[in-house]
Amino acid sequence: MLRILAANHAKETHVSESSPVRLEKEGDIGVIVVDYPPVNALGPGVSDGIIDALNRGNADPDIRAMVLIGAGRSFIAGADIRGFGTGRKRASIGSRTYDVLDASPKPVVAAIHGFALGGGLENAMACHYRIAVPSAKVGLPEVQIGILPGGGGTQRLPRLAGPKVALEMITSGRHVPAPEALRYGILDEVLPEGTDLRTSAIAFARRVADRRPLPRVRDHAVQVDDPGMFDTMRKSIARRARNQKAPYHCIAAVEASCTLPFDAGIVRENELFNELENSDEARALRYAFFAEREVAKLPDLGEVKPHDFHAPAVIGAGTMGGGIAMSFADFGYDVKIMDANEQALDRGMERIRANYATSVKRGSLAHDEMERRLARIHPVGGYDEIKDCDVVVEAVFERMDVKKPVFARLDHVMNPDALLFSNTSALDMDALAAETKRPDKVAGTHFFSPANVMKLLEVVRPANASPQTLATAMAMGRRIGKISAMAGNTDGFVANRSRAPFNSEMVILLEQGCLPEQVDKVMVDFGYPMGPFAVGDLAGLDIGAEGRKRRAAADPKYRKLPIADKLVEMGRYGQKTGAGWYRYEKGDRTPHPDTEVAAIIRQVAGEMGVPQHNFTDQEILRRLLFSSVNEACRILEEGKAYRASDIDVMWLHGFGFPRYRGGLMYWADGIGVREVYNQIAAWHQQFGERWAPSRLLRQLAETGTPFRDAKPAPFR
Fold first, then answer.
1. Of 506, 458, 714, which is closest to residue 619 (Cα–Cα)?
2. In the chain, N or C: fewer CB atoms in 10 Å?
3. Please, which contacts does 42-47 make with residues 24 or more away whose CB atoms are closer than 8 Å?
4. For helices 246-259 and 153-161, angle between their N-to-C axes, nearest 10 degrees
5. Distance separating alpha carbons of residues 43 and 37, to the nearest angstrom
6. Are residues 213 and 339 in the same domain?
7. Rounded-to-integer distance, Cα 677 and Cα 642, Å
8. Whether residues 169 and 59 fall in one domain
9. DSSP string covering 161-193, please?
10. Is residue 600 over pLDDT 70?
11. 142 an active-site residue?
12. What pLDDT, on the 0 to 100 scale, is given for residue 3?
């Protein structure tokens, strides 16, 4: 042990040289400080350090009470996820931090700032008292990585907040602000704004030091007002929890808190946790968690500091431009928005206001917050009014002849240091950069629709973009709540290019005997929130038709999709026209199978002379997804993406791929590279060149290398 005595002798610190936890004495109060940067996760040595400090505090006759507090920016932000599923030995019930805190003969006050999540909140609830600063947030988000709170959270939270609140918090995993947690009874006190947490916690500990008996959460009774709430919750989550175990195990664990004594409930929680930790679902969700962190790494750019921007502007007030402006405003940025004329700008602002109003009506946004966000969006009349902005996102119509003049004008008007970004989903960024005298300051920023909702921002890398420009584009996305992923400059970039074979194959399946509703059912059963044909109707079939025309003009071998083209020729654009792949009743977005579409499919297939047959669900699923796996391999072998896991992140956040399946490439690894290759090779023989296996896929199959371990070509 290393003992450090402060010069004024008022504060003593006891700390092991290697421990991330120290015990400090402030007179008669022991302060247990968790100091494990960056967020005080329960990593190696933290739990043991807390127990050791607690034992020493209880053994010290001069200490009357203790405070558990985090150093740095957080209390305890949860478990170290890297330890899950590794065969680690878990502490037995009775010897865990939660159990030792609960059994402490001296009162312990949890002093919370930043986040108390997962095991962090479970440790706080095992303390006798909990206080927090107003900005703190608490939660039990374990369901988001396929497990449940395994440190007593499912037993203590219902005793503090009631089973109904506990069910909602645990099955959603949401972060609850401190004032709300106080109302629920999770916290005992929220300090006034600006109050020093440590000083207040020590004072609180002195006030309660001699109170007996100690208020242990385990001794609280659970109040069950509605015995049917558990079945009601199971029904309410059925759609979003499809194919997943963890949400239902969470409900079962909370239900145990209402039907079993505390200790028996802890045992039941532990059993349910063990069933989940090594499940396929949990492994996939952990993979997705780490893939989202890996995607931010740009290994060939080195340590580059992004530009600091303060004054963004958006060109184009249509659906995409308005959504991008909202994204900036939602995260505190004042943003200017302009369009070709005043009428278009007015329509855009009306659309923005309507979008915010819908959120207010749903209860997801307070009215005063809506007004604050609207006040940050400034419509302007022309280029001269944005010339002092430091970053501009162009979001005009997706045609090169429309975008090029905008870039030329921006280059002429904007400050020489301003960065010029394009919200394009497929167009050549090198061609746009060539319209300027600053190609080093140009990049693609492909937002997904609706831009204010979708999390993915695909940053597209032109040949001459500087590392700092690319780093700034990536950072910009993160600062407005997006997950930024880098893509090479190729037709469709990475996300849409890897998805394009899927989009073609789903229509080719119709030529061979499927119906839209059959394909959509397979994909919804797989875990997608909507089927691809319903999504097409939502996005607008005319958008896809524009892209097909461009690709057909560029490639004489391009595989046309006559059924899709026929619908567009008939004016069936989807929801906006009341008919697309499905028909829609006025004012209702529910897709209804349409006999007219079935007749068109039969007619076109007959004219093409395509043999018809029945498909199994597995064949439909693999035809769609294997086609994209093959294209993803081509993208990697061309050096247009850094990692297979980056493609997974794009599919998770750009296309709604079910998160509990990890991502497109992770899912394919679960089937096996050799089996994927063999099936694609067989379809190559049956259907022709569009199914030709990529070179990388063949190499991976021959060497038995998983997709996740594929070595892409150098990024370009």
1. 506
2. N
3. 42/76, 42/78, 42/79, 42/80, 42/97, 42/119, 42/120, 43/80, 43/83, 44/80, 45/18, 45/19, 45/20, 45/21, 46/20, 46/21, 46/76, 47/91, 47/96, 47/97
4. 60
5. 10
6. no
7. 22
8. yes
9. H-HHHHHHHHHH-PPEEHHHHHHHTS-SEEPPT
10. yes
11. yes
12. 29
Catalytic choice (122, 255, 394, 517): 122
What are 150-190's pLDDT values in tens digits? 999 999 999 999 999 999 999 999 999 999 999 999 999 99
Q: CA-to-CA distance for 711 and 716, rounded, in angstroms?
A: 14
Examine the domain organization and report whether 578 and 447 are in the same domain.
Answer: no
- What b/e string do you get for 571-610 counting C-beta neighbours within 10 Å, with b at 16 or more? ebbbbeebbbbbbbeeeeeebeebeebeebbeebbeeeee
* pLDDT, average across residues 357-371: 94
Q: 312 phi and psi, to 5 degrees?
A: -80, 155
- The residue among 376, 399, 400, 401 whose CA lies nearest residue 314 is 376
How many domains does the chain fold into?
4
| Full-model pTM | 0.91
Amino acid at 193: E
The two three-digit tokens of residue 620, written as one number: 């439909």
User: Domain range holding 703?
Assistant: 279-301+621-716
* Co-location of 91 and 204 in the same domain: yes
- How many C-beta atoms surround the C-beta of residue 525 within 10 A? 13
Averaged pLDDT of the chain: 94
Annotation marks residue 394 as catalytic: no
Instruction: Given the residues 142, 255, 277, 435, select the one marked as catalytic.
Output: 142
